[in-house]
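Hey, I was hoping to borrow your eyes for a little while. I've been staring at a protein lately and its backbone has me curious. You're getting the sequence in one-letter code plus the fold written as tokens. Would you mind checking whether the tokens look sensible for this chain? Here's the protein in full, and shout if anything looks odd to you:
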Amino acid sequence: ENFIASDASAVLAQTRSVVYLDDGEIAVVRPGDYRIVDLDTAEKEKAVSRVDWDLAKIERGGYAHFMLKEIMEQPESLRNTLRGRVLEEEGASRLGGLNLRDEQLLQVNRIVFTACGTSWHSALIGEYMMEELARIPSEVE
């Protein structure tokens, strides 16, 4: 039996064994087995990790509900997200995986934000900011 989730905490009630994928990896899951391939479909070996932490530790953390917890954790989360990407002295940013030259970035004519749950609301802010500040038509799905 296999489970697929974006976060190990989602499957802790079913299993403690997880395989973490890296960027550019794809899990091919079938009843009873799985394999990991890269974008060129070359098979990769991945270690099975054992999750030792308790789900109770990542629960609401004393907050009345998860949304409030997420809201209160946003400043730290944003700092962690931007760490090493904002180059203040150069007045620039470094976005991993986005290897476009300035000329290419200037040709972007539409941005689609994909999100679900409470991140959808954050994506709405991103949509507004892109349209207002960069004048690039944007939408949230």
